[in-house]
Amino acid sequence: MSGYFASILQGALLTVGVSLSALILAIVLGLIGAAAKLSGKTLPMAVATVYTTVVRGVPELVLMLLIFYGGTIGMNNLLEWAGSKATVDINPFLAGVLTIGFIYGAYMTETFRGAILSIPKGQMEAAWSFGMGRMRTFLRITLPQMVRYALPGFTNNWLVLIKATALVSLIGLHEMTYLAKQASAATREPFTFFLFAAVLFLAYTSISLWALRWLERRYSVGVRRTSA
Predict the structure, then answer these.
(1) Residues 6+ apart with CB under 8 A from 127
(2) CA-to-CA distance for 215 and 218, rounded, in angstroms?
(3) Cβ count within 10 A of residue 173
């Protein structure tokens, strides 16, 4: 059965690729969403609010199937309407990354928004009074503090995102959950292979926790902590 274990390990690399790619997309969408919600402008605030409300209210599996199957059908219908005979097939890897990144971008939006609101507004106003532009103020004043405040929520979102990558097996992506299922069906040893996949997920999340805790300590240098 060593061949099956090797195959699952290769699938684990694909799981890492999906989760990291989705994380980058989620961070970008989270920053955009947080900026929109804090902009004070009606239209951006409304769009961001609808985005976070809808995404957090619809199951991840439904959204993934909607994007993968509904997106393919929609684009093919659009091409047919335009008179083209070409067809479009959405790549399962791309569909998984876009779906998971889109979903967790909504959660990151609220995480980043809460972190920014935790920073005293007077600090930004002081930076503006000294002639610092908004972008420089964000990079020098807001961002470092935002990272510190956002890390606990970010860590939780990241761990859930990693586990959510198992859903991409349902759209045919050969990541480790899909390969564990194939191996268990071929050998009739489901416990062995799903346990192996669980151990790999646990190792991935444990390494992530270690790295994020180091990052949290790094951004907490010089911060006074109150004793319980």
Answers:
(1) 136, 137, 140, 141
(2) 5
(3) 23
What is d(CA 60, CA 66) in angstroms, rounded to the nearest whole number?
10
Question: What residues does each domain of the chain span?
Answer: 2-219
Rounded CA separation 20/11 (Å): 14
Helix pair 42-57, 2-37: axis angle to 10 deg: 150
- Measured CA to CA, the distance from residue 134 to residue 140 in angstroms comes to 10
Residue 120 CB neighbours (<10 A): 9
Residues 6+ apart with CB under 8 A from 63: 55, 99, 102, 103
pLDDT tens for residues 108-130? 999 999 998 888 877 777 877 77
Residues in the chain: 228
Whole-structure pTM value: 0.85
Model confidence pLDDT, tens digit, residues 23-32: 999 999 999 9
Q: Are 88 and 72 within 8 A, CB to CB?
A: yes
H helices of the chain, in order, are 2-37, 42-57, 60-65, 71-81, 92-117, 121-129, 134-137, 143-164, 176-187, 190-219
CA distance 73 to 83: 15
Superfamily of domain 2-219: MetI-like (1.10.3720.10)
